[in-house]
Structures
1.
Amino acid sequence: MKQLISIRGLSKTYDSGFQALKHLDLDIHRGEIFALLGPNGAGKTTLIGIICGIVNPSSGTVTVDGHDVVLDYRATRTKIGLVPQELCTDSFETVWATVNFSRGLFGKPRDHAFVEKVLRDLSLWDKRHSKILALSGGMKRRVMMAKALSHQPDILFLDEPTAGVDVELRRDMWEMVRELRDRGVTIILTTHYIEEAQEMADRIGIISNGELILVEEKAALMSKLGKKQLTLQLQKPLNNVPEGLESFALELTDNGCSLVYTFDAQNEQTGIGTLLRTLAERGIDFKNLHSSESSLEDIFVNLVRGR
Amino acid sequence: MNIYGVRSIYRFEMARWFRTLTQSIVSPIISTSLYFVVFGAAIGARMGEVNGVSYGAFIIPGLVMLSLLSESISNASFGIYFPKFTGTIYEILSAPVSTFEVVAGFVGAAATKSVLLGLLILLTARLFVNYHIAHPLWMLAFLVLTAITFSLLGFIIGIWADGFEKLQIVPLMIITPLTFLGGSFYSIDMLPPVWQKIALINPAVYLISGFRWSFYDVSDVAVGVSLGMIALFMLLCLGIIYWIFKTGYKIRP
Ligand SMILES: Nc1ncnc2c1ncn2[C@@H]1O[C@H](COP(=O)(O)OP(=O)(O)OP(=O)(O)O)[C@@H](O)[C@H]1O
Ligand SMILES: [Mg+2]
């Protein structure tokens, strides 16, 4: 079976009356890294919360490996590790105690060798006897990661894993996530950084206002990235795209003052020459022109704004 | 059944207690000693026997109950309130543990602590007064049942509270008056008849009376009634906790 997590018609209305998720459908494939991208308040944390059992769904179903997350929570939660968005730890505990606590809580017998390995992988071994309050923010985040990995989960949720993390640690984190994926762990991460989704994910989902507005393979999304745009600022505004130029996928913006031509930068023939010649023949004058590359960021902003 | 989960929560809670061991046990022992000095030795010497028991010995069960109730409530309420306050409760909510297992871990630890403390107070009391225990097993049973019941109540308070004031207000405003008025320092039949009737709606009366019976074979109300009341109260708390987890009240939005 390809899907590991399947979400059907999931809605969440908080007690305040606010609807954070609106009839959401999504499948997460086994072994992939899935990035959930969306602005503040889009519902990312709510979605993760429901899958992990922290938030009660209002309607709809979520199954993990065929088990319902509400009815069969023992089976689903045993498979899941969660690193929440907020840094919250038991300040007065030692790293060693807190990671062992997590392992037991998730129903696993003590295994010092395994916990040692997790701590070493996260460069926390030297700090194992330190109280958590004596650690830096980045270290605390790694402690939370160690807690999430302590029970050998098949699925790892990372809710904004790199918020407030320096560049070097961010690279380490990415490296670690890739290694986990190579070991067969399915990873779902949320982020505000498009760069991060681009760098890490196999598939990307964009969520806004509680609705999933796009789910695509990164490769497919990247081919959209290959598009370039040529914008011509016209001397005189036009009412519509001039006749005879229909073959050029043109768009009038800026109240008819700008003509936008989208083309594939990878093509041998961009068609710019023909376009400019044709415009000159028709006496359409322009005062300025510039070309730009559409990034995932533009796609994202357009999609989110379009709602 | 997630035995490892229960054990983890239990151990975690006990470890928290041992970290602050001195303050956890020294302050109740000092305050109980003060009661004995004042009520047992100073005033008690001038008081006659109550129901055939010297006054100093008479107040021991009541004093133990007083500490047992407040310690059970404060331990259990703090134990669950704190993870809620710091946010670490996310881990318990996302873990494969049932309501029963979570409660068993937290309430089990809180009850263990208060039973140990109750026994410690009994030992301390021995330094001041000579007393005997007529039914040691029943004494232990009352101790354990009361500790569990009031730890359950504390657990509920910890979930209900959304600030430290609320956490303290219930023990302070309700439990202390109830135990003081529940016959810690006097027998109910020393009260005027009307007040004897009114006293019977106070649950602490049944606890203290039953507990005192296990020491001196004398009680204000029948022992069976005492046990029945504790059982009733325990079921009520269990029912409320079941409802809390079922609906997610204040812990799972
Ligand atoms: N417990 C709650 N009660 C009421 N509303 C809530 C609650 N938790 C979240 N919300 C609301 O639900 C919406 C979605 O919140 P959520 O935390 O899922 O967003 P998010 O996508 O994770 O945002 P961010 O990127 O800022 O973390 C927000 O508008 C938020 O205010
Ligand atoms: Mg969030």
2.
Amino acid sequence: MFAHRRLWSAVAWLTRPRVAVLAGLAHVCLLTGCAGEYSTLDPAGPSALAVSWLWWGMLLAFGLVWFAVIGLWLLAVRRDPGDVSDAQAQRLQNRWIIGGGLVLPGVSIAVLLAFGIPVGHGMLPLSADEDVLRIEVTGYQWYWQVEYPDAGVSLEDELHIPAGEPVHIHLRSNDVIRSFWVPRLAGKLDAIPGHENVLKLQADQAGVYRGLCAEFCGLLHADMGFTVEAHEREDFEQWLSDAARDD
Amino acid sequence: MLQATHPFQLVAGLLVWAIWFVVLYAGLSVGCAVAPPAAEQGDLNWLNGGLGAISLATTLLLVLAAWRCWQAAAVPSVDRQGAFFARLGAAIHGVSALATAAIAIPVVAYPPCV
Amino acid sequence: MTDSQGHDGGAQHRRLDAVWANWPGWRTLAAVNHTSIGLRFMLTGVFFFLVGGVLAMLARTQLALPAQDILSADVYNQVFTMHGTVMMFLFAIPVLEGLALYMIPKMIGARDLVFPRISSLGYYCYLFGGLIILSSLFVGQAPDSGWFMYTPLSSAEHAPGMGSDFWLLGITFVEISAMAAGIELTVSILRSRAPGMTLRHMPIFCWYILAMALMIVFGFPPLILASVLLELERAAGMPFFEVAAGGDPILWQHLFWLFGHPEVYIIFLPAAAVVSTLIPVFAQRPIVGYRWLVLAIIVTGFISFGLWVHHMFTIGIPKLAQAFFSVASMLVAVPTAIQLFAWLATLWTGRVIRSLPMLWIFGFLVIFVCGGLTGVMLALVPFNWQVHDTHFVVAHLHYVVVGGMLFPLIAGFYYWLPHFSGRMSTPVLGALGFWLTFIGFNATFLLMHLTGLLGMPRRVYTYEAGLGWDWLNLLSSVGGFVMAAGIALVLLDIALHFRFGRPAGRNPWNADTLEWATNTPPAPYNFASLPALDTRHPLWRQPELLQSIPAGEHGLTDIRHGRRETYGTEAVSGRLREVIHLPGNSWLPLLGALMLAVVCVSLLVRIYPMALLGVVGAAVFLLRWGWENGAHPRAAPLTANEPDNPPLHSRTCDGPGLWGMWVTLMANGTLYLSLLFGWFYLWTAAPQWTTPETLSVDRVAMVAAGLVLTGAVVAYGRLVRALCKGRATFLAGGLLLVTTLGCLHLAVVLWALLGAGLTPTEHAHDAMLLVMFLYLLFHAGLATVLSLLQALRVRLGYVGVRLPYEPVVLRPLWLYTLAVYWLSVALFLFLPAAWGAGG
Ligand code: HEM
Ligand SMILES: [Cu+2]
Ligand SMILES: [Cu+2]
């Protein structure tokens, strides 16, 4: 019993200041370091936002686990156990292994899924939103061909979308596999020869967001950047009809 | 080989788990290729139902097997070697049952083919 | 290498040495002894680690500042691909195999592994394959599609040079060594433990290695198949991965990661074995929760085969399927956590001795736990969609691989240094090396997680300034060089200790396991006498073993026959069954590997006649190898006073060879299952797959051929059963009959194949059929040739009533051949028609 109390106070001692440090770090990061044109921690769309919260939550929880395990280890190495009988060791073993080896990961996984499954669900391009804008993006070595099939507009390395509503990007590839990613808006999805994948993309506000190719696709993989410009709805309609006329 | 004190019990549960896992993944893939239920049905459709039923049955089977091994380990006449395998076999069947149940949970959360 | 402790059995040691020693001078290349081979594996592995490290430093130099062009995009792509390839295939796996090959016989109280020539063959395949892959850098044609070689990027169209061929052929060649080690370690652990060492009494190290070995057996075949298929596509135009012809590039990803994820655990398990071995020694108490650890090992071994799709979360498979793999991936955290807390509990209840190995174990803990936790994060699908293929993954993978493999490995090196050299290392330099490595590592990779979250993708040769990535990359590069300095210090420390380390004496750490009962450095036969054991901690429970073993007070001391021998015991109970006689030094493995190297290089430069010559050469040497077995004069010829209690293994109907055959067939069966997977995968999922309206293969002929084969196998089975009952009247004739039936079968199958007019370069369907045919022909051909040789050996008196072993060993091959034949006929030829030849 006594060992228990000592253990927990040790854990508390080890973690308390660190939590503060962690929170502080997160704060600093949010204010300065997390900004960036490709930063997933500076989200500008619902998918990216949800994932960024997953990240901060996991960082906090797993950070605690990490420090706790290291703290326990240091303590275990330092302490003098005295004489531990086999029966005592057996009891301790079962308690620790069941607690740390089964319950701890079990609970973590359950919590993780409880948060993660709804988030994942929200990111799916369900066909219920049938009337959303459809944009076809095809990968080439080394650029993205962008088509608006309904309007007959075609662009390179440049997308325009209405802000505040989801659009569906239909991804294909002409040659090798690559991955379409706009970090501030949503997760990435691969463009694979012979297959078509659909990504739901949404920007909350008008603005220019940068995207890149995440799957290695050969020599100029690093140069496959593109931009996604989100316009207010009316501006977007305007842009689309202008572009259709120019074509 | 099926005796609860046989070393085969060290892998039996996980073999069942592995076969179930293949059936689950292959069943889903083939199901979606042959007759995909519409996404609007959500998770209430024949495919999720079938996969869920198989998973439940497998879990129950594994729990039973775990219990059987556990019993066998407690029999006084069993030698230490046999008890070692039975005890370990019980735990491994138990873990396999847990893994089966846990991995199958998304069946009640997602539509199958999107 | 001989005994320096000067026990009174000096003459006995000299006699043993005469039988067991490697040949002197350059002829030591013919060595087959596990101590030598294990050391060679480890040294070669360290060499490749340095190569991989230099490549890493090149990459980090390029990335240190934005918009640099020290390396061109082309060179950078080769550099990171080779870094990953060298580190994973030529460093991590082989070095751990080497450690296992070195340790296992010593821990289980045996004199050698059960297939010594296979150790040697494996080593040379590794060495030659590694050198071939390395040479690609010097001809400027290194592979450049990343270490997982995704098609179509690695296909003939998009990677026209020789780079992909170097990778595919070289890695497959190296893979032979992994398979060899996997089979050999499995059988050795199961069949050659000290008498009385039941499974439950095995040191925990052996459980880990057993699991690793079996994982190799089941994990590598998918990659081997994938490599063969891709090389066939590149060289012969068979379109397995080409959409337009009915293939699918996703098939490559499945096959690669079916191997690739288990591979992570193949690396981690032996490293965890080191941790589980060292912690009890430095806590000076038995490991807490032995049974829990065994549970964790077995569960890891299985579950890790159900995770591979977590590398493919962004390819667009159904969300529900992703969720299955997501949960499964998180679940492997459970066995890992069990191990972690068992280690913690052991330390908690012991009085821990501070030492250099423990320092490295501490580094392991800090780094690996972090890597494990980010692994669980990555298993969460929505999060994975954001950070997949970014530097977050690069950070994660190095935390896992460096923390989970390199740190425990160095801990192990320091721990076993006295075993290798007889000397202790110096504490000061070693500690400095540790801290530099540890700090450098974390400086390189900790904040790299942030780099990834800020959106930096992996595998980019440069990046623009002002994205928030600049200082992070600079920090990583500086850290990388600090780490390199740390590694250099460690190597210096180890080099110096050979000269300046103080002599270690026997069992310097007061360890519990039997490897410390050998001399340090060990004699080639490990133990002058083989003890019976019934405890997990022999040197703690029976410290007198340290004297009684070298004094020859235990078993198997007679060496007058001049054979290398060790005990063969029952797999579970450890009951003594037989004396296994082992081959001595031999050139055949080296020659066989050289011929395989010829094959590899000629396929690379596409000189096919030379490749054919190489195949023939390799076959000649390997068959000759099989010839020098059993009662052959170079092995264990029959004598008047045969030992019969226990008997020699080649005089029985069960032995390590039979087990080796079964384990090989398990690996082979996995290869076949991978092929079946490919078949069904393409059939159901390839976008443009077509099954021809009418099958051109003559199915009647195939069934007839199958019946002939069935006849051959039934006849063979009868012969063997009679032989083991002591009847051999019709043996040679029977074997000839089997051979004839085999030839007939081959002829019909070949006829059906040639008459089918397949177009394997135009349709993935036909390409798959062709591979299936070749697979069947190879197996039936092999079994037929070996049976013919058996008939010959009966005539020469190497096989007979008193020597029934070899036909017994061969029987599973026949059974396997029969099983895959009927399966193939059913699933490749009949099922599609029955399904309605859908599209
Ligand atoms: C000496 C410390 C090391 C440094 C500084 C280092 C650095 C790097 C760098 C810069 C990359 C390229 C990342 C990218 O562009 O995607 C990389 C990739 C990789 N590293 Fe390391 N590495 C080190 C040690 C190791 C070790 C010990 C292993 C394995 C045993 C390893 C395995 C890998 C693998 C598998 C890849 C992926 C290659 C690919 O993307 O194809 N590294 N490493
Ligand atoms: Cu790319
Ligand atoms: Cu993995």
